[in-house]
What does this fold into?
Amino acid sequence: MISYQLTSAVLGLAIAGTLLWLIYQDRLHARHAFWWGGVALAVMVLGVFPQLVDWMARRLGVAYPPVLGIIAAIGVMLVKMLAQDLEHSRQERALRRLIQRIAILEAELKETTRKGNDRQTPK
It folds into this structure.
C-alpha cells in the first residue's frame, strides 16, 4: 500500500510539472503560475510533513487541526479571487483607454481624409 505522504509528494510534483509544461507551452503566464506553484509546494510539504498541520493548529489554538487546512484553503481562494478581480479591472481599464484612442485616431483620419478630398476637388 502506498503511503499518503508519497501520494502527496507525487501529486505536488505532478502539479509542479504540469505548471512548467503550461508555462513552456505559453498557456499560463508565469505570474499566474506563482499561485499554483504555492499550491504544489504546500501539497508536497504538508503531505511529507503532516505533523506541521497539527503543530500550527496547536500554536493557533485550533481544536480540530484539519479545519485549519480548510480555513487556509478558503483564505487563499479569497485572496486569489481578489487578485483576479484586480487584474480584470486593470485589463478593462486598459481596453477602454485603447478603444478611446482608436476612436480619436479614426476621427482624426476621417478629418484628414475629408480635408484632403476638399483640396483635391476643383472649384
Observations:
- Residues 12 and 40 are 5 Å apart (CA to CA).
- The chain has a mean pLDDT of 89.
- Helices lie at 4-24, 30-48, 51-60, 65-120.
